[in-house]
């Protein structure tokens, strides 16, 4: 289909990637964003090979390689620092055909903004849509309206347009844990510069992952009741308490982090949706499949969405609605599967059933590295670019 005007609501990873892909396909694209200033949420993100392959196809391969960390090894360690498993990643890279690139979210956002290059209308809070036979109109809180052939709702975890698509409100599910995350300079007192290390114990995790600019993206996971106050001025003291007695690199990390630069989300996901599409409106990214971060696939799934949506608009010519329904069928199966797998993984890691978590700790110590990389490869190769 040619000559379409496409309205994108949201300038996050999914919205910007969709903007790039749809623009390259020759469509007229307009991106709207609720906030007055674009600031990425969270410090870092693991872009596995399925997401990177889409960026390669969009001409961003060199750019993502320049900002991505060179992650050659994964290590699991006990809370006290004993090595459970050393997992070289080269077999995974060879199996799936692309290196993963953990990145700082700000670097990724700037790369996508440059790749898009078009106008982003900030301060436009989309409050609804109106459809008729000929098109769809996005309605904004400031009184503005814009009409197009379709609307891409990439408006995130608390999507305003999701209830329009699904026909009902959808509550977020608390995954049971809080995640502190940020960036610190690479240092041998923390971890080798090319190693993603994960310390596990007491249903908690502490992790360091290399990103571009000689930095580690770090996170701490702690199961806590929902609504526990954040108290940024207490972050270091709290983490010292939660991770008392853990290995020295974990203690070094706690001392080196800057509490003012640390994000602390309570982790939620969204139950799998029956549909990602209604008429001329398509959900994309977290608006469609908010997922626990325990598979590292949230950003990758948004990027896959953008690719598949563009593919069907380009490759089918029956109608916009037909193309969106094909997108819906493919992405609903993939996205909902990832949501379920990530939720199961989150529960396994964070002690929902303490016996299941204990067995996982034992499994980490005896599992063959190839089994770990095969499991990651299965998730990666389930995407649209094999």
Automatic annotation (TrEMBL):
It catalyses: urate + NADH + O2 + H(+) = 5-hydroxyisourate + NAD(+) + H2O. Residues 5-341 form the FAD-binding domain. Belongs to the FAD-dependent urate hydroxylase family. Transmembrane segments: none annotated. Pathway: Purine metabolism; urate degradation. PANTHER family: GERANYLGERANYL DIPHOSPHATE REDUCTASE, MONOOXYGENASE. Its EC number is 1.14.13.113. This is FAD-dependent urate hydroxylase. Its cofactor is FAD. It is an enzyme of class 1 (oxidoreductase). Keywords: FAD, Flavoprotein, Monooxygenase, Oxidoreductase, Purine metabolism.
């Amino acid at each position: 289909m040619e000559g379409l005007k496409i309205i994108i609501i949201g300038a996050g990873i999914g919205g910007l990637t969709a903007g790039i892909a749809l623009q390259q396909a020759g469509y007229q694209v307009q991106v709207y964003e609720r906030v007055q200033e674009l600031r990425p949420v969270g410090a870092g993100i693991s872009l596995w090979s399925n997401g990177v392959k889409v960026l390669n196809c969009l001409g961003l391969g060199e750019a993502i390689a320049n900002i991505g960390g060179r992650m050659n090894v994964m290590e699991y360690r006990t809370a006290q620092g004993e090595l459970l498993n050393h997992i070289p990643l080269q077999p995974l890279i060879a199996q799936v055909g692309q290196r993963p690139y953990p990145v700082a979210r700000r670097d990724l956002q700037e790369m996508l903004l440059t790749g898009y290059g078009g106008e982003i209308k900030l301060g436009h809070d989309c409050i609804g849509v109106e459809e008729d036979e000929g098109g769809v109109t996005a309605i904004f809180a400031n009184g503005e309206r814009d009409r197009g052939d379709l609307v891409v709702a990439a408006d995130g975890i608390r999507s305003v347009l999701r209830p329009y698509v699904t026909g009902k409100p959808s509550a977020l599910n608390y995954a049971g844990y809080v995640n502190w995350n940020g960036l610190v300079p690479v240092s041998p007192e923390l971890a080798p510069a090319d190693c993603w290390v994960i310390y596990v114990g007491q249903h908690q995790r502490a992790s360091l992952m290399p990103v571009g600019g000689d930095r580690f993206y770090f996170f701490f996971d702690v199961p806590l009741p929902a609504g526990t106050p954040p108290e940024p001025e207490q972050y270091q003291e709290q983490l010292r308490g939660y991770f008392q007695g853990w290995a020295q690199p974990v203690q070094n990390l706690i001392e080196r982090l800057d509490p003012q630069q640390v994000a602390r989300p309570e982790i939620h996901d969204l139950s799998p949706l029956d549909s990602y599409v209604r008429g001329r409106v398509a959900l994309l990214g977290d608006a469609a499949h908010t997922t626990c971060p325990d598979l590292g696939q949230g950003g990758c799934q948004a990027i896959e969405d953008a690719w598949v949506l563009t593919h069907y608009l380009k490759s089918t010519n029956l109608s916009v609605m037909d193309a969106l329904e094909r997108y819906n069928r493919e992405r609903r199966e993939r996205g909902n599967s990832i949501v379920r797998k990530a939720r199961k993984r989150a529960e396994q890691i964070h002690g929902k059933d303490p016996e299941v978590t204990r067995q996982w700790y034992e499994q980490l110590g005896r599992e063959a590295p190839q089994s770990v990389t095969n499991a990651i490869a299965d998730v990666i190769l389930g995407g649209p670019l094999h």
